[in-house]
Design brief:
mainly alpha, about 350 residues, 3 strands, about 65% helix
């Protein structure tokens, strides 16, 4: 009874090593067969509850650890017993994480899953698509308000339903009920706009998130619920889901979110200011306000710590670029445009 969590963790660890070397096996047996069943089971339960089970779960874990340390201090329990139980808990959480969602980290890359041709970096193509993104961001400019969130959720779901086959996504994959982070202020200081809670298959959005970012962030976190673990792929899918929608709010959120990444990459170009001059003043005002708003919201020390921890976590799960994986959405979008043009020919 004492050793079974450790034995389970060892088995999971060995299976992870196997999964790393056999992505096609993971895709066929776990991502396409087992995970959708887990997602349906856990999300059907968690969606019945309005608050975040994930946040409450971690509060209880922290409470139990603090309580254990207090009991050790007053000599009600032995340190050895407490350490053993803590290690058992960690072993169990490690196992449940991979069984319930984490094996998706080892599935093939998106270009292999859906048969894309991955394009090589090319400045001419980059400039062309940057122009396209600027044009459509300007064209779809609109104002989004928190009162739109319920309708936006429905529109994002509909876009996933329509585009799921082309993106290799198993729809409906359970039930997705967006939840507000209980500790939104704290997460805002960390620079976290949303996250997916794998133990309960929950989607979370920060209450401090700007309305212009809500559709894109919501679509991004839903991509994780569909078994997309790469941050770059989740950004790509969020972009496609938004811009493929017929709704102006989703389109604008998708294009302006992507424009941020493209302008970041373009900032080293000699004619960067010329491209910046093509952006509509209303869009520029949004981007500047966005940058200032999140900068004021974040606590640099907390944010740096969270970034470092997330970097270690992503690299441990074979996301080689760590937090830089978010920025790799630019190359994926270029490939998406390339393959979209191939399909038209």
């Amino acid at each position: 009874m004492i050793s079974w969590p450790f034995l389970l963790a060892v088995l999971v660890f060995l299976s992870v090593q196997f999964a790393i070397r056999n992505p096609e096996f993971v895709e066929h047996y776990y991502s396409k067969r087992l995970y959708p069943s887990f997602a349906k089971f856990f999300s059907s339960f968690s969606s019945l509850i309005s608050f975040s089970l994930w946040d409450v779960f971690w509060v209880l874990i922290i409470f139990l650890i603090i309580s254990g340390l207090v009991l050790i201090a007053i000599k009600k329990i032995k340190p050895r017993w407490f350490i053993l139980r803590t290690l058992q808990l960690l072993a169990l959480l490690y196992s449940l994480f991979y069984i319930g969602w984490g094996y998706n980290y080892f599935r093939p890359k998106i270009e292999n899953r859906i048969g894309w041709e991955r394009t090589k970096p090319d400045e001419v193509i980059f400039r062309s698509i940057l122009d396209t993104v600027i044009t459509y961001t300007n064209r779809n400019y609109t104002v989004i308000s928190p009162g739109d969130y319920s309708k936006i959720d429905s529109l994002v779901e509909e876009s996933y339903r329509i585009n799921s086959i082309g993106l290799g996504i198993d729809f409906p994959n359970g039930t997705r009920r967006p939840k507000t982070m209980i500790f939104s202020s704290f997460y805002g200081k960390l620079g976290v706009s949303g996250y997916f809670g794998p133990f309960f298959n929950e989607i979370h959005v920060n209450s401090y998130l700007l309305p212009m970012d809500y559709p894109f962030v919501l679509a991004h976190e839903k991509a994780h619920q569909f078994g997309i673990t790469s941050e770059a792929e989740a950004n790509l899918i969020a972009f496609i889901i938004c811009v493929k929608s017929g709704d102006l709010r989703l389109k604008y959120s998708g294009y302006q979110s992507l424009l941020f990444y493209f302008l970041k990459d373009a900032s080293q170009m000699k004619d960067y200011k010329e491209y910046l001059g093509k952006v509509n003043k209303l869009v520029i005002d949004d981007l500047r306000f966005r940058q200032k708003y999140y900068h004021n919201l974040e606590n640099k020390n907390f944010s740096d710590m969270q970034t470092a921890a997330n970097n270690v976590y992503l690299k441990a799960n074979k996301i080689e670029k760590g937090v830089k994986n978010y920025d790799q959405v630019v190359s994926l979008v270029i490939s998406w445009y390339h393959n979209s043009n191939l399909n038209r020919e």
